[in-house]
Design a protein that fits this description.
The chain is α/β, with parallel strands linked by helices. Helices cover 47% and strands 15% of the residues. It is built from 11 helices and 10 strands. The protein has helices spanning 42-53, 85-103, 120-127, 143-146, 154-162, 164-173, 179-185, 197-209, 213-228, 231-247, 249-259, and strands at residues 6-7, 18-23, 26-31, 61-66, 109-113, 116-118, 130-134, 138-140, 177-178, 190-192. The protein has a 7-stranded mixed beta sheet, sandwiched between helices. A 3-stranded mixed beta sheet has the order 6-8-9. A hairpin with a 2-residue loop joins strand 2 (18-23) and strand 3 (26-31). Helix 1 packs parallel to helix 2, helix 3 packs across helix 5 (154-162) and helix 5 (154-162) crosses helix 6 (164-173). It is globular, with a radius of gyration of 19 Å. The structure holds 3-methylmercaptopropionate-CoA (MMPA-CoA). 3-methylmercaptopropionate-CoA (MMPA-CoA) (1HE) is lined by residues 36-37, 39, 69-70, 73-78, 95, 116, 118-120, 142-143, 146, 148, 150-152.
Length: 270
Amino acid sequence: MHDDFSPLPGPCSQLRFLQVTRSEALVHLRLHRPDKRNAISDAFLAELQIAFSALPPDCRAVVLSGAGEHFCAGLDLSEVMERSVADGVLHSRAWHQAFEQIQYGRVPVVAALHGAVIGGGLELAATAHLRVADRSTFYGLPEGQRGIFVGGGGSVRLPRLAGFSLMTDMMLTGRVLDAAEGQAAGLSNYLVEPGKAVDRAIELARKVASNAPLSNFAILQALPRIADMSRSDGLFVEALMSAVAQGDDEAKARVRAFLEKRAGKVGREA
Ligand code: 1HE
């Protein structure tokens, strides 16, 4: 499986908690702490930042998955007890910085989910631009039971994905969603059979990587910001972004190819 991926040399080859491989324009980042269900410690978080900073310039999309039985069990709870309140604020801000780097990075990220996607693991999944879940996936936010609160941007990202009311329910009652419920709620974009999430994520990432880079830039950088703006500001920024994208040579070449019948039709690509 995924035979065409090989280890990425450079700083990523030194990482303890991440396996980083590449195949042409795709990089596959695999959370690799299966004995602790890929729970994210401070050292693990630092490695995520290193990996996303060290993406090769010609990388056009990332697939993010987890090794072992689960995608990610969230925050490494063994480190919580040692933190003061002041340390806690800084800790959460470090997660924000790492996760903003993923969401607002240079390349689209497709997450492949399976097993537990819990707490900070769900917050991490929410930073991705697309999520493929297999049917073993389950989602939880047990912060209420653990006496803590989300700290990895979940209160900002998750209501935008699946709604404020559902997130409140998950945090207050500890409600766990199965894969089908998560798909219906908008936590995943695609639902596949067990063991198939990485394959599907790679397939989608290849498609995404073949888009015009400036279109992908606009989708990653402008779209979420416009969603946060007032209607009037959003429409204005949309007009600017649209003009910038259309003015690019690549856009002109792609539109010309369609008009000259050299490009695929919608729903009937070659
Ligand atoms: C961990 C963690 C962890 C597992 N921190 N060590 N997250 C949670 O509250 C989720 C807690 N974890 C679980 O509910 C379960 O471990 C799972 C459902 C994810 C998986 O169950 P299972 O039976 O496959 O594994 P396990 O036997 O429970 O765990 C295997 C080992 O991983 C075990 O350690 P060991 O030394 O006894 O082998 C567990 O202690 C360890 N482990 N999860 C530390 N999370 C930025 S703020 C974000 C806030 C949050 O993320 S809150 C949610 C925290």
